[in-house]
Design goal:
The structure is a homodimer. Chain A has 14 helices and seven strands. By secondary structure, chain A is an alpha/beta fold. In chain A, α5 links the parallel β2 and β3.
Amino acid sequence: MTVSIENWAEQVRAGDVRAISRAVSAIENRERDAEEILRQLFPFTGRAYRVGITGAPGTGKSTLVDRLASHYRVEKKTVGIIAVDPSSPFTGGSILGDRIRMQGHATDAGVFIRSMATRGFLGGLSQATRDTTLLLDAAGKQIILVETVGVGQGEIEIVRLADCTIVVLMPGMGDDVQSLKAGLMEIGDIFVLNKSDREGADRFEQQLKGILQLVPERDGWKPPVVRTIATENKGVAELGRQIELFRKHFEQAHERQAREIAHWKEWILQLLETRLMERVAGKYLGEKELDAIAAAVAERKTDPYGAVNEILARAGLGEDH
Amino acid sequence: MTVSIENWAEQVRAGDVRAISRAVSAIENRERDAEEILRQLFPFTGRAYRVGITGAPGTGKSTLVDRLASHYRVEKKTVGIIAVDPSSPFTGGSILGDRIRMQGHATDAGVFIRSMATRGFLGGLSQATRDTTLLLDAAGKQIILVETVGVGQGEIEIVRLADCTIVVLMPGMGDDVQSLKAGLMEIGDIFVLNKSDREGADRFEQQLKGILQLVPERDGWKPPVVRTIATENKGVAELGRQIELFRKHFEQAHERQAREIAHWKEWILQLLETRLMERVAGKYLGEKELDAIAAAVAERKTDPYGAVNEILARAGLGEDH
């Protein structure tokens, strides 16, 4: 069966699960159709609220995302969930395991769930995630939950362009390390202390609040700490309430338009960078040649500038360009 | 006076301060000559040891770098110092103030000092710093100290390709935040507790050591904590000793060649990315047009994919490329 891109875009806008799934696959596999459908859908974006959720493995992020989705479903809001694993070259076991827990939503057409992982040596996962966010936005999902598995620079890049970023922590051994990792304190708009029935939760909450007092406020917002026990659905409504408070806080802020434009400036530069690397490195370099060049450079048999110039020249972007 | 690039490169290799300064300026200003001289000098690189030094403002990094330079001068080693400020669009007051303290080295031809800051909307500071490191390497500097001012993702990128990374902390208010910021725990090969005569130093050292025990070891190296009082030159020799231990540890490691090749793979991809953005965004986009496109995208008057495609087409990298 062949459908025109126009029809396909129509189906996505109508919320057709198969059409959406096929479009996400096209985005992941960098098919040419992907960009065409995204262009057609773009005018219908800008209505979804994007919530990024990050935190170390084992903090219960997936369960929390699951419960948060249910919370929004009770409010009759449609939900999209994107689970991203920047460290994995494929969608691995733990995500699959997590997704199984989410099967409560499997028969609910109001929830779309998708896992995404890194493909190829050029990465590009951030861009694929951003594209998928726009896709689900156009598909009418009112809330888009972007969950990153693991902690690192990749995750920060992924959640940075969300409207609201939630950092999930938990009490117990290793807390200090988790919170130390990857500048989480700087990116959190809301902090969740999950598994808050565990020993040491009170002490940890106090420490966390002490630290947050020292972090400079952004635009008059003071990041709250929400205690949850996701497995028992405790604190989830309060989390939903804080997300709503944060949304309203920034909708009323005067600098909203300036923030939007700054957001898109960065988005456009990142898209340009991704496309340039795809079209030039993907086409004129390749991973095998990169290995060979790196080995030659390490031995000083060639220099990196000359090697890069040669690739640029192949792409018609030589020095005299 | 015009000199050929060959003569200029010769002067750099001979350690001529004016020739080196002029080459750093050419790198900063992205002059075409810069790449030519770097290519000529590349075969003579690979001998310097690059030490990255990062930490929050006020921890005394600059004084420490100053003392470390003196330490190496006593050992008759030549030193290059690059002070980088990713947050500043120009070399600002505090760096200038710091550099004044360094004037003890001003008449010492064995030390080359240079501050670098961000220029233009495309950034490119990481690449300029990496280029300058190679330049000073070819100029015969045996130790290159790369100091970043401030803490953030830019700094991490800058110090990440050093041979050894030192994270500077200090006791007192705000420590927790400083150490929490930007994933410093993950990048440090050696931790310095500067101003260690201040109150709370012992407690802070214990906390830090506790945290470091939980961070996974990399290749059998356990990051030490070195206590210093840089203003009194205390602990600096011990820091020098730890840097030497770290260097030897990795020279003996079996995976050294694999590390070198991985290092250059990343270096080459980053150089390619920088060049692509310079040649395409710098030439066919410009900051003003980016502002205009971002505003139009924010209002959904245009879509980002189409806008980026147009820029790619202008550069001869259109969809049918």
